[in-house]
Design brief:
237 residues, Spore Coat Polysaccharide Biosynthesis Protein SpsA, Chain A, alpha/beta
Length: 237
């Protein structure tokens, strides 16, 4: 069981926390880096190896994680010299990857069972499996429906329900066939390409705890909740 952890971004939205640290290494609960939590969860789910795709401040991640032996895993690295998008780094790794593997962002805080995502992906034989989460978006305005200059409908501050990508995927290596290594490839581009085929992505629906630590308020919430969430996030710790 192999995972690819995407950790090459600059973490611009999380500044100033990421001025001197890569986003996956910002501390949660003053004790654990996000990436440490992820690696412990992967090891606990049965993953034996991982590749970390690094870029901005990647040497700090390499120094912190090392070969992964303290988590009982084998960890190697892929260096992203220029931004390649979410899926672009996988193209240069393709020959090093098993036929099916997990891909995830390095800044996700969740109690999702990563092993089950990969198992369900393998069983489905889908080209891509996307872990999804239910989110409700509230519009803080009255919403108008118009038609040729006339108002034909009105809804006061509606809420809209969506299922969003959690930044965790099961992927088959053959799905990357036809894309050029070294060129950017976004998650959005890959999904749209697959939607145009007769073999679209599968969804893995999850309703547990998930927090994408992309902005300062997300990071503050993660720290505020970590003490109560720690038994779920770090079972046995």
């Amino acid at each position: 069981m192999h995972a690819v952890i995407l950790a090459g971004g600059k973490g611009v939205r999380l500044r100033p926390y990421t001025t001197a640290l890569p986003k996956p290494l910002v501390p949660i609960g003053d004790q654990h880096a996000i990436l440490e939590i992820v690696l412990r969860q992967l090891a606990g789910a049965g993953f034996t190896s991982a590749t970390i795709a690094i870029g901005h401040l990647g040497e700090i991640i390499r120094a912190y994680v090392g070969d992964g032996s303290r988590w009982g895993m084998r960890v190697d690295y892929a260096t992203e010299d220029s931004p390649l998008g979410t899926m672009g780094p996988l193209l240069t790794l393709r020959e090093r990857l098993p036929e099916s593997f997990l891909v995830m962002n390095g800044d996700v805080l969740t109690d999702l069972d990563f092993g089950d995502v990969l198992a369900r992906h393998r069983a489905s034989r889908a080209p891509l499996t996307i872990a999804t989460y239910a989110r409700q978006v509230r519009i803080d305005f009255g919403v108008l429906t118009t038609d040729v200059g006339r108002v034909v409908g009105f809804t006061e501050k509606p809420s809209m329900d969506y299922r969003v990508s959690m930044g965790v995927y099961g992927l088959s290596r053959s799905t990357l066939d036809g894309y050029t290594p070294g060129l950017p490839l976004g998650f959005d581009e890959l999904v749209l390409d697959l939607l145009g085929t007769q073999d679209p992505p599968h969804a893995y629906e999850f309703d547990g705890y998930w927090l994408d630590i992309g902005r300062p308020d997300d990071y503050d919430r993660a720290n505020a909740e970590f003490t109560t969430r720690k038994p779920l996030l770090l079972k046995g710790a």
